[in-house]
Amino acid sequence: MTNNDEGAGIMSAPSRVPGQSTRREEWLRRRRRKAIIIAVVSTVVTFGGLAWLITSSSGWPKVKTIFFNGERFKEDFPEILGYLWVDVKLFLQTAPFILMWGLVIALCRNTRNPVLFPLRAFAAVYTDFFRGVPIILTIYLVGFGIPKLGLLEGDFHFLGFGGNWTSPYLWGPIALVLAYSAYVAEVFRSGIEGVHESQRAGARSLGLSHSQTMRHVVLPQAARRVVPPLMNDLLSLQKDVALLSVLGIIEVFRRATSIKDLTGNFTPLVAAAVIFLALTIPETRLVDWYTNRQRRRTGGSQVV
Amino acid sequence: MKRQILATAAMVGLLLAACGDDDTTTSSDTTAAADTTIAATDTTTPTADTTGATGGDAKACAEGKTLKAGQLTIATGDPAFPPYVLDDAPESGEGFEAAVALAVAKELGFEGKVDWVRTSFDTAVAGSDSTNDFNLQQFTINDERKQVVSFSDPYYTANQAVLGYTDGPGKDVTKLSDLKSLRLGAAAGTTSLQFILDVIKPDAEPFAFNSNADAKTALDNKQIDAIITDLPTGLYISAVEIEGTKVFGQFPIDAGGAGDQWGLLLTKDNPLTECTNLAIANLTASGELATITDKWMGEWSDAPTLSKD
To answer: Which of A30, A189, A301, B53 suits a disulfide with A106, CB 3.0-4.6 Å?
Structure first.
């Protein structure tokens, strides 16, 4: 930049003064403001109208007493909230094992050596089975069925975990790990297979073995791709721990239905829904944020 | 025998279906409606053990209100089973409901003038049964049924009870606090679960199962040490469903967790209803009802009352 240029700039004001916006920028700003105002008005009118329609309908008082009973909510919400820790704890206990076991299954399925065909077959049958069976069935089968065998009795202690060998707090999470790892394995597998063949070929041509290629070339790239779908699976796991209530575990959902059975009012279930939402909505937003950031970084198309 | 078990299972199923929506308010207003002037005319009642002037009320009240003059027709289930009726022979008065029925009959002035008939549970609660003056086969009083039939005041309120394997960890339970160290289970949505959470407050996490059937599975699997259920269900499970189990005891009503209430079932707006209420009130006041209950639902059923603390 020269002195001349600077002088010319000052003289040709007001077209470009630092801190002052151009006419185009102002037009854009005006247009944005207008769009916001229209969106707000439209939203208020739509939802206000809907709210008015719903609350003025003849069935509304009944809906309100059965689903949105203020008194019941005040009484039941703290009681149900007290069981949130059970859900969170079950999630934290199962999630790491699901990730590990899922990766193992995916790697089994990706072996190339003919000697290891049984492993590949096992992984295929495993994912077919557990993805094809309702999770609640797996939970019932494992949670009530295995203790019925009576093979193990008494207490166990293992790495800070402990309890009775027959406990639903042991077999329930195991059932979830078995079922969910099948889904997670498929996510890992698609991640691994999504790494372009040339990467693998390039690594092999550099003299890396199959396992070295896996560890240093394929998995690091796959890991980045699988994070968003994995987070999705973990999100649904957070809700599905409620399924363990069929084994008798008292958690948010079970406590809520018990109160509903005694009072005949569905408000406790609405309270339980609020609790789950408070947990999952931030998680959903986190997943969305991460997915978008990932897309920007890898230069993919963006949805704004 | 198989038919009997099936019928029994169907009945208990119905009983359980009635859980959760039982109505604890009873028609006390009918008692208040008793005509005191009739009581004055009937002081010559021959029954020596009736207490107070109200003793005559029921008898005078019932006069002319039965199906057959001078006879009282009482219905029960087919088959009737212990501990409610022993040997399917209600006329003997052996068994809880047989004894209650005969005591009520006596209060109403029909001692020795009772006919027994049998009806199915379903027909009776549907309100389409006019073969009898009143029916008793563990009918839980609830609002839905009150639409089509009338109930007397309750003659029984189900206590909470603890059930487990005869040789299991619950066998030495004598008081409520003994249960604290056990792994307990109950069916979700029952007064029994509420009883565990509010009254027993066990040290280990209790379990709430979808149904009594799942609770039984868990007990069978030794996943829990004992089931909390109401006494009639507990007696049924131990007698018919899981071999080797037993009801270790029942909790007194004042420990909390009162369950279903059973009433005599009459046709809708039967004028005899208020007379049966008087009879039950008399039996309650004289302590006879408590004696009958203790004898059959406690002693005979081998379900001792546990101490509250």
So the answer is: A189
Catalogue the E-assigned strands of chain B: 72-76, 114-118, 134-135, 149-157, 160-165, 184-187, 207-209, 226-230, 245-250, 261-267
Q: Which of residues 191-220 of B touch A (CB under 8 A)?
A: 191, 193-194, 205-210, 214-215, 217-218, 220
* Residue-level pLDDT at A1: 44
Of all residues in chain A, the one with the smallest CA distance to B224 is: A167
At residue A56, φ and ψ (nearest 5 deg) are: -95, 0
- The token duo for B70 is 């001078």
Mean pLDDT of the region B78-100: 92
The average pLDDT across B233-243 equals 87
Domains of chain B: 2-158+260-300 (3.40.190.10), 160-255 (3.40.190.10)
pLDDT in tens, B117-139: 999 888 888 888 889 999 999 99
Q: Are strands B72-76 and B134-135 parallel, antiparallel or unpaired?
A: parallel
Q: Where are the beta strands (DSSP E) in A9-159?
A: 155-158
Say whether pTM exceeds 0.90.
no
Q: Does B256 touch chain A (CB under 8 A)?
A: no
Give the separation between CA A49 and CA A147, rounded to whole angstroms.
Answer: 56
CB–CB contact A168 B215 (8 Å): no
Yes or no, beta carbons of B20 and A164 under 8 Å apart: no
Q: Which residues pair with B263 in a beta bridge?
A: B154
Calculate helix-pair angle for B96-107, B55-62, nearest 10 degrees.
Answer: 80
- Give residue for tokens 């939802």: A47
How far apart, in Å, are the Cα atoms of A142 and each of A95, A179, B157, B186, B223?
18, 11, 38, 20, 13
**Predicted local confidence at residue B15, as pLDDT:** 46
Determine, for residues A262 and B189 on separate chains, whether the beta-carbon distance falls below 8 Å: yes
B74 contacts B134 by C-beta, under 8 angstroms = yes
Q: Model confidence over A130-143: pLDDT tens digits?
A: 999 999 999 999 99
pLDDT in tens, B163-196: 999 988 888 888 888 899 999 999 988 888 989 9
